[in-house]
Specification:
This is DNA-binding transcriptional regulator, MarR family. It comes from Actinacidiphila yanglinensis. There is one protein chain. By secondary structure, the chain is mainly α. It has one domain: Winged helix-like DNA-binding domain superfamily/Winged helix DNA-binding domain (Arc Repressor Mutant, subunit A, Orthogonal Bundle). It is built from six helices and two strands. It is globular. It starts with a helix and ends with a helix.
Amino acid sequence: MTADGAQLWTLNQKLLSAVMDACTGELTDLGLETKEFFVLAEVATSPYPAEIAAALMIPKASVTVYVRNLVAKGFIRREIDDEDLRRHRLVPTTEGKEARDRALSALAAEYDRRLARITLQDRTELQRILQEMLKSSE
């Protein structure tokens, strides 16, 4: 059986969706919607809303709504950027970091549960393949 790129992409997307669906209850218990979780998780590496929108490939207007919700819930705060006083950086609060870490733990546990279905050798090979695929083309 030969799988083309579209088939593999679809399988990967289905797996990620299944993992997220399995963790929806835990995210809800933390006070997070799925997309809010993605925004909260991205804040550490992309502290500006436009960067978050680009990284997550979602509209800037949607990021604005998620950021507003996360600020209201006390998970992130806005700070004036010292290097450009016209810009606000997003910073996770202690509560935000705890919620993010607990959500990531739940996702990791669900993913690990699914990984347990394959051999250690296959997991190692999967890691190698994913790392190779993430390398930028030269």
